[in-house]
Amino acid sequence: MTKPEYLRMVINYNVASGKFEVDSNMNLEGQIEMVDSFIRCQIGEGKDESEREERDVYTIRLQLLPEGVDWCGERKYESIGCTHDIGNESLREGILLKLLGELNGELEDRAA
Question: Is 0.85 topped by the overall pTM?
Fold first, then answer.
């Protein structure tokens, strides 16, 4: 039996340049929806006082999880899992918000 292919994003953020590299098996609209949905699930989780890891490049992995796994409480039939090497979730959300702005800008450029 083969392992199913889940929708996923691997996001590398270069701190010095402020640039992103995104590896994903989704189109641009799907990437926007996944990042937006994940950020919405974090609302109300509180401030993270953890120390951030000092790195030149941070990596965030988002993956749409199968039915029955409920990480954020918003949807019972699917949820988005996240792993990262940042050490601080508030910084993670800031990086994802910046990415979301860039992805939305790219979508607007395509429509123009």
Answer: no
